[in-house]
From TrEMBL:
Family: Belongs to the UDPGP type 2 family.
Main function: May play a role in stationary phase survival.
Name used for this protein in its record: UTP--glucose-1-phosphate uridylyltransferase
Enzyme Commission identifier(s): 2.7.7.9
């Protein structure tokens, strides 16, 4: 039912300069796999095999990564290194990839609007690949959310409790608890000061969105620095009772920050690679 997954991947990744001067943040590896490949695997596990990526200048390596590399594959064919490419080969075989470029980096909302041409008029998943989510031995976070979508047929955002002094980095929600891990969203504030935060439940980089989000983002006024966020559009959906917040099962690492990236590397090395 949910076939498409959008990956906004056009951001500058300034927190990782100089590494991100000429390399996309999404290509930074956690151990030996780029962040975006973890995200695509998670989408695939949720049944979304149409991968729609919003890229920008200097992001060509994203497209190359999800393509064959004949010379390299020929070179290592028949050697014990061949199996190092088995995961990415399997991803390439199972997915279709389409790309569009965001010409000006005017924020996540603007990146989502840029992706509309790839998504069309259907509900879709969205992954911010710099948030790495791992649920050892269980379904991935997007698969958990796709399951909920079947029941509620509305937008769903993944949320996590964060310390009070970190709420200013996130969109923060509050609402009515439907069960222990599910909240019908009534209020949402983008990057609030801790005194103004409606709770400590922060939206992380996993979403299921219904396509009316595009028109709603269109109507959103640019905020700080001319950036267009998606919080206002989500809030408009929430006012109609159409946004659920889900406290997911699993670990999430903010790999857009250096501390999160190191934590993710250690966690994945210990749990996935040894
Ligand atoms: P971030 O807020 O992490 O921004 O974007 P950033 O530019 O990637 O990183 P910093 O803060 O400068 O270090 C969240 C997500 O939205 C995408 C990013 O690629 C990331 O996946 N994004 C952001 C876009 O695609 N376009 C934009 O204009 C902004």
């Amino acid at each position: 039912m949910l076939k498409k997954c959008l990956f906004p991947a056009a951001g500058y990744g300034t927190r990782f300069l100089p590494a991100t001067k000429s390399m996309p943040k999404e290509m930074m590896p956690i151990v030996s796999k780029p962040l975006i490949e973890y995200g695509v695997e998670e989408a695939l596990q949720a049944g979304m095999s149409d991968i729609c990526i919003v890229t920008g200048r200097g992001k060509r390596s994203l497209e190359d990564h999800f393509d064959v590399n004949y010379e390299l594959e020929h070179q290592i064919s028949g050697t014990d290194k061949e199996n190092l490419l088995s995961d990415i080969r399997s991803v390439i075989d199972q997915c279709s990839f389409s790309y569009t470029r965001q010409r000006e980096m005017k924020g996540l909302g603007h990146a989502v609007l840029t992706g509309q041409t790839l998504i069309g008029d259907q509900p879709f998943g969205m992954v911010l690949a710099d948030d790495l989510c791992i649920n050892l031995g269980g379904p991935g976070v997007l698969a958990q959310m796709a399951q909920l979508y079947k029941q509620f047929r509305c937008s769903i955002v993944a949320v996590q409790e964060v310390p009070e002094d970190e709420v200013h980095k996130y969109g923060v929600i509050s609402g009515q608890y439907i069960s222990e891990d599910l909240i019908r969203v009534e209020n949402m504030v983008e990057k609030p000061a801790k005194e103004d935060a409606p709770s400590n439940l922060a939206i992380i980089g996993r979403y299921i969105l219904t396509p009316d989000i595009f028109d709603l983002i269109h109507d959103t006024q640019p905020g700080k620095g001319g950036e267009i966020q998606i919080t206002d559009a989500l809030m408009a959906q929430a006012q109609r009772g159409c946004v659920m917040a889900y406290k997911f099962k699993g670990e999430r690492f903010d790999c857009g920050s250096i501390e999160g990236f190191i934590e993710a590397t250690n966690y994945c090395y210990d749990n996935l690679y040894t």
